[in-house]
């Protein structure tokens, strides 16, 4: 049984002119203990999908799915309180905007101590001893996420520290409760490269030691590939391809995945000095002006007349894709035989 099992999830914004669909019939399955990346350019619907999972979308949004299960429990049938409990006990989320995740008028120390599980102070401890123990645990967590000067940080208010430090605090708070599932929305966006590597090592460690599953949201294919074993690629509210990370980078089936891989220097090998990186022409369509048929159609170098019809999601050798003219199927077939 999958930890997370979503089938045909549609998220639409209620506007004066009717419903505007932002995420269209997206399916996603995450196995227990898996690190799964949700990749795609900004505006593809990754954050909306994550917020729908944790039940954080306001009434402005309509969320419909054929199936939306967490460990066999129907998320759509849960009331607000049950959803909150699930968030507190099982699922944690790191949001894109770290500073906004913290209370601006409370010192970091109080916020961090508040987030720690009370089981640490189980037993006959008086207030001061319990607090000392919690504080020590908070410092250990801060060191794990790469904070060196913990004393200064603990005394500070969120506005007195950098966005990168805010992000580290938010990550420490998220992993403090040892969630079964961590949803991380661009967790390294505000971090310097060395800190990114450190965070990924930490997340991998939590994944291996505590079987913490991770859903990583990233607009950057390289970041997604560094941590994940599977990638689901989104474009303009559709899933265009999903499969094992290594294979997908080696043999992308959807033209959008191919373009994302080609525009990432770390995958495409040698880059001639000052040569522009290959990229798709045009930009991501707005919600109000979605092309009919395949949403990549107007930007796709392989587009043909048939692309005005929406391609069905097909499966091949463990890969699912939505394209009339898939790439690399022969290479995948051969690879499977060898
Ligand atoms: N509150 C909102 N009101 C109107 N449109 C919204 C709102 N939130 C998201 N959208 C639109 O929904 C689409 C998907 O947004 P979403 O934030 O999920 O994308 P994303 O892939 O997470 O990109 P990013 O990383 O930039 O947030 C975008 O077109 C976005 O403009």
TrEMBL record:
Entry's localization field: Cell inner membrane
A Pfam family recorded for this sequence: oligo_HPY
UniProtKB keywords: ATP-binding, Cell inner membrane, Cell membrane, Membrane, Nucleotide-binding, Transport
GO MF annotations in UniProt: ATP binding; ATP hydrolysis activity
Coiled-coil region(s): none
UniProt entry tagged with the keyword Transcription: no
Main location (coarse class): membrane
Keyword Magnesium among record annotations: no
InterPro entries: AAA+_ATPase (IPR003593), ABC_Ni/Peptide_Import (IPR050388), ABC_transporter-like_ATP-bd (IPR003439), Oligopep_ABC_C (IPR013563), P-loop_NTPase (IPR027417)
Gene Ontology cellular-component annotations: plasma membrane
Annotated SUPFAM superfamilies: P-loop containing nucleoside triphosphate hydrolases (SSF52540)
Membrane topology, from the record: Peripheral membrane protein
GO biological process, one term: peptide transport
NCBIfam families: oligo_HPY
Protein name (record): ATP-binding cassette domain-containing protein
């Amino acid at each position: 049984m999958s930890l997370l099992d979503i089938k045909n999830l549609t998220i639409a914004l209620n506007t004066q002119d009717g419903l505007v669909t932002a995420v269209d019939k997206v399916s996603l399955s995450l196995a227990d203990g898996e690190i799964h990346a949700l990749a795609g350019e900004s505006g593809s619907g990754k954050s909306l999908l994550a917020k729908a999972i944790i039940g954080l979308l306001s009434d402005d949004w309509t969320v419909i799915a054929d199936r939306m299960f967490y460990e066999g429990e129907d998320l759509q049938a849960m009331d607000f309180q049950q959803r909150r409990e699930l968030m507190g006990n099982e699922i944690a989320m790191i949001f894109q905007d770290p500073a906004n995740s913290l209370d601006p008028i409370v010192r970091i120390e109080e916020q961090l101590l508040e987030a720690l599980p009370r089981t640490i102070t189980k037993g006959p401890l008086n207030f001061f001893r319990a607090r000392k123990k919690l504080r020590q645990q908070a410092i250990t967590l801060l060191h794990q996420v790469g904070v060196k000067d913990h004393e200064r940080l603990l005394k500070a208010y969120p506005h007195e520290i950098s966005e990168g430090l805010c992000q580290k605090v938010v990550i420490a708070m998220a992993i403090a409760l040892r969630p079964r599932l961590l949803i991380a929305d661009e967790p390294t966006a505000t971090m310097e490269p060395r800190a990114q590597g450190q965070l990924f090592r930490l997340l991998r460690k939590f994944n291996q030691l505590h079987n913490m599953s991770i859903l990583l949201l990233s607009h950057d294919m390289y970041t997604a590939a560094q941590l994940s074993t599977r990638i689901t690629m989104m474009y303009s509210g559709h899933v265009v391809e999903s499969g094992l990370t290594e294979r997908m980078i080696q043999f992308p089936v959807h033209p959008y995945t191919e373009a994302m891989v080609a525009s990432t220097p770390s995958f495409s090998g040698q880059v001639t000095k000052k040569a522009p990186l290959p990229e798709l022409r045009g930009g991501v369509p707005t919600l109000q002006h979605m092309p009919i048929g395949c949403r990549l159609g107007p930007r796709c170098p392989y587009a043909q007349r048939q692309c005005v019809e929406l391609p069905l999601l097909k499966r091949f050798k463990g890969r699912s894709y939505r394209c009339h003219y898939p790439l690399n199927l022969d290479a995948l077939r051969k690879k499977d035989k060898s």
